[in-house]
Amino acid sequence: MASERPLLDLSPRLPPPAADLPKPIPSSRSSTRFRGSLDRINFAPEVLGPGAGAALRYGSRAESSRSGASQKDIPDEDARIVFINDSARTNSRLEFAGNSIRTAKYSFLTFLPRNLYEQFHRVAYIYFLVIAILNQLPQLAVFGRGASILPLAFVLFVTAVKDAYEDWRRHRSDRIENNRTALVFSAGGYFCPKRWKQIRVGEIIKILSNETLPCDIVLLSTSDPTGVAYVQTINLDGESNLKTRYAKQETLLRAPEKQGIAGLIRCEQPNRNIYGFHAHMEIDGKRVSLGPSNIVLRGCELKNTSWVVGVAIYAGRETKVMLNSSGSPSKRSRLETHMNRETLLLSGLLLTLCTVVAVLAGIWLGIHKSELDLAQFFRKRDYSNNEDDNYNYYGIGMEVFFRFLMAVIVFQIMIPISLYISMELVRLGQAYFMIQDASLYDEGSHLRFQCRALNINEDLGQIKYVFSDKTGTLTENKMEFQCASISGIDFSSIKDLTAVDHSIHSVIVGDQYWRPNMTVKTDPDLFRLLRNKRDTEEGKHACDFFIALSACNTIVPLVIDTPDPAQRLIDYQGESPDEQALVYAAAAYGFVLVERTSGHIIIDVLGDRQRFDILGLHEFDSDRKRMSVIVGFPDKTVKLFVKGADSSMFGVVDETKNGSIIHETKSHLQAYSSLGLRTLVIGMRDLSREEFDEWHSSYEKASTALYGRGSLLKALATNIESNLEILGASGIEDKLQQGVPEAIQSLRQAGIKVWVLTGDKQETAISIGYSCKLLTAEMTQIVINIDSKESCRKRLEDAFVMTRNLPGMEAAKTQFALIIDGSSLVYILETELEEELFRVAASCHVVLCCRVAPLQKAGIVALIKKRTDDMTLAIGDGANDVSMIQMADVGIGISGQEGRQAVMASDFAMGQFRFLVPLLLVHGHWNYQRMAYMILYNFYKNSVFVFILFWYVLYTAFSLTTAITEWSSVLYSVIYTALPTIVVGILDKDLSRKTLLKYPQLYGSGQREERYNLRLFMLTMVDSVWQSLAIFFIPYLAYRHSTVDGSTIGDLWTLAVVMMVNVHLGMDVFRWNSITHATLWGCIAATFICVIIIDTIPVLPGYWAIFHIMETWAFWFCLVAILVAGMLPRFAAKAITEFFRPNDIQITRELEKFRNINDRSSSSEVAMSTFAIHQQQQQQNDSRDFVL
């Protein structure tokens, strides 16, 4: 594996006479070897006036206006006071958290009460708990007290075991994390190892290279003499690029072991903002402002810096990473929401049955009131001890009330308690197969599919709208330099691909060759201009252009070893892929960035190694939309380089100079955008000594201000970034990910509307829309790019009229594409114009939103969610997509180049956009079909059982006695019928993967809710009533004149209902396998075994009953008759429906079954079919073709 070495100067700059740029040195002890011939290119500080040389970092990242720090002072009541190197005084009030972390939810003592509390948040569990408590009362005892508690106890136990295992894993991870060690400054005056969990706020910590930070620290000093440190935040936000942090000059040269250090830091209270920090430090009587570039957060790794020393400022649960560790918002699936509706209907049915039983019981008691003195179960008097006492009778009113409560207990399983645990297990199994699916595995990043939210798997099968980011989601976010416009001349390799050159520029360092790690296409004409005409005006502009690309960034060059000892690769690390592409482009043209420190950079300019001092840097921010750097050249001149978006750059350009160049540059930018390229404009300005001194003085005041420092720095940047001279523009290609056009086409064929929400400019977004086949030449584009509310209103009204007033045939053929920008959305979202936008967008096949802000993305998703019942899915890869992902019904994060913020906020995560097709069309379809059927089946099987009990109550004087034993009632939902439905819910497939991908239109069944709706629920209930009648009355009629007792016929009913519901399930299974066979038929066998075992226990009712009835032929005849009579109507309805009114899935299943589907043409027409192949021809003759 290649090793990395830093290209950082770790020692003071004393210009020795060495002639060559030295080899990279990994530590400061050998840094004296890392000195080049800098005397000939030294930038003399005195040229710029006194003190300029010490201000090499002015305006650097350390003082970025992005932070917005120190905009106000911190009141004492809101401040955290940290005494440096005095943890005892800092923690004297015991108000600060220790550094021990705990992500586990439970402890040994709190597990049972807290877990039960969380589980009983489900109202259904409270319902079953109340039923179990009622059964404990003597007056209401229907089942044995233990048996009534068992179902609920089993469900609670299984869930508790699952939660306990997950929490044990969290405890183990916490233990490993807390016992790691770090170097902490001790009272003895040296650094010694200390466990992370023992670190306290205020202690001084030393971190070595490649170590992870144990807490949030403010930097005091680093191994670099200028105070810079490089960190990697991959554990914090997933970004692997290096970021720079700085120590303040006031503490930089103070070593705790020698001089000691003491002071005070007044900072804000712990908060979740990982990009902000507001504090100041009081040291040696001075007050120094601190910002986000002075703090390094827990979880970051130190890179390319030998060591840093810092003071612990936030520890343990108060660190920013721990405060941000909460998961994404909880979401509920659409099926589960609908299931609550059916649960309420079943509750109403349950109350109706209980009321009927109670009323009829009251009528029966009134009719037989004269016989109640000696009637069994209703004796008014007890004469057993020659005493006349009341016995088991409380009057008709109370008896009716008791009968109602007893009926609730007997019929309680009408609400299937096993359904909830079954759904969790099925979702777990579905998630396992999605994670293991090879078609969802990203070979490039070696990442598997992640299922972060188990409770919405089935929603993947009902998506109607997909909202997608562009950069990094549809594209690779791997930028490649394509072309440039310099001094109004277009150097575009796209014009003539045969002229493209892939030459590699190498830098000779000693006896080694260093070359960039990435090759870039170069334009031969531009290459010749730089080589042969450097002294011309165009040549000078071209050199300044590429120096600007090399200098105006925060890229850090790293050297990577190769198998060839004479060759090294320069790898450019940075926060922005755009910056990396531009620096690689400059290197390809001979401007190789080989070293960067906080104070200077070294660029090999066409073989001549030169040092450029970085005198100031204003970073990019969303308001200015540009960044700038002040560079001191070897010839002692000072220049300001600025790069940014064209919308911001042309406003600060001096248009009185070179107007023709500006005009040509704008024309080239338009051409680049139309090709889908990302564009940046590069400008320059020469600074005189007076201008630099003025900026230097203003910066000194702004950077040390305690109030409004961020706004002052931003105003300073805006002031100096003016009157620029255009150097040129760049075009960078962000290539589409593999399979994106095909994926979008499949999604649209599936009836899914794809909306793209991007921050890119309109021309770039439209070009990408054509590239990915989102837009087509046949579409009519409706463009809304307006900067006033009334104009937006008028344009929306016109657009709506346009979409509605087309003739019939033309309207059916015309497709509309709405293209709208963020400036227009400012006047539309959260106003009365939202409804107008919705009407227009709903009429369009494609919506493309460009230049949109993150909150506008969420607003677009909310626009659809508020006004339709359609399921929405949002997919993105960056932090700017988090709000959109969390707003949608289903959020998917792409593990891309922009970190893991989107992944951490998502419900599912994957590596490529094209994986959306198998995820939705295959797994989503399967998950929805399985879960929808499983819910209806659970309602059905429990309803059949309850109706059998109800019919029996009608023949037992409404006394609520049961023929089916209490243990069979308990085991019915646990052992007899639970496992087969779980297996089918995980493994069954109505159609194969190949078929679902070939015919995306099949996905529409989930959108139309064909497998779960109120009509199917009602039909299922009717079916359960019929089957319960068959199960109850066939044995009743067969044995009504015999001497068979209730327990014996109860065993027959138990076996019959279990066989019925399992055969019912078997009839609906699409694909049989060994596991399905084993569980379904095994459960029937297990029922026989359990009934036999129960009847061999002498203390239970029905002792030996099953053996007596199994000896008779009537027993076996009843079982067969029940199955035939019970299943015949369902079989007939199924046959008639599939014969006369088949749906698309049934048709395709039949074609797939007879292996005709793969032999057909690629046409999307599939002829209607029935049970036999010969019926296909008959249906075709009847012209009843079905178009998917």
TrEMBL record:
Its cofactor is Mg(2+). GO terms for biological process: phospholipid translocation. Residues 13-25 have a biased composition (Pro residues). One of its GO terms (cellular component) is plasma membrane. Keywords: ATP-binding, Hydrolase, Magnesium, Membrane, Metal-binding, Nucleotide-binding, Translocase, Transmembrane, Transmembrane helix. It is a multi-pass membrane protein. The chain crosses the membrane at residues 147-165, 344-367, 400-421, 939-958, 970-987, 1016-1038, 1050-1067, 1079-1107, 1113-1133. It holds the Pfam family Cation_ATPase. Its main location: membrane. It catalyses: ATP + H2O + phospholipidSide 1 = ADP + phosphate + phospholipidSide 2. PROSITE patterns: ATPASE_E1_E2. InterPro entries: ATPase_P-typ_cyto_dom_N, ATPase_P-typ_P_site, ATPase_P-typ_TM_dom_sf, ATPase_P-typ_transduc_dom_A_sf, HAD-like_sf, HAD_sf, P-type_ATPase_IV, P-type_ATPase_N. The active site is at residue 469. ATP binds at residues 469-471, 579, 620, 643, 678, 758-760, 851, 857, 880-881. Belongs to the cation transport ATPase (P-type) (TC 3.A.3) family. Type IV subfamily. PANTHER family: PHOSPHOLIPID-TRANSPORTING ATPASE 1, PROBABLE PHOSPHOLIPID-TRANSPORTING ATPASE. This is Phospholipid-transporting ATPase. The lineage of its organism: Eukaryota, Viridiplantae, Streptophyta, Embryophyta, Tracheophyta. The gene is ALA1.
